[in-house]
């Protein structure tokens, strides 16, 4: 704030309510902005504009994008690598192992 060309006056106010109520207070103009660990959801993003997060919480969730059959999901571990890379691994790994145990 000190490096800005003009002085900006501000006041931090403690908000006692839910995150949805906090976002609504900014959306309705009761508060000018909100600072905190507010999760960006589609509903909240439709009401106010969020800045890009400057840190990551490290918390993530892994879910299926659609209801896939069991036969498809049991091979999901193969998806991170391309077919060519899996093929090269299957060819080179035995060759490496043969050289390792050759002594």
From TrEMBL:
Annotated InterPro entries: Ionotropic_Glu_rcpt, Solute-binding_3/MltF_N
Entry's transmembrane regions: none
Domain Solute-binding protein family 3/N-terminal: 5-68
Pfam families recorded: SBP_bac_3 (PF00497)
Origin species: Oryza meridionalis
Protein name: Solute-binding protein family 3/N-terminal domain-containing protein
Source organism, top-level taxon: Eukaryota
Gene3D superfamilies: Periplasmic binding protein-like II
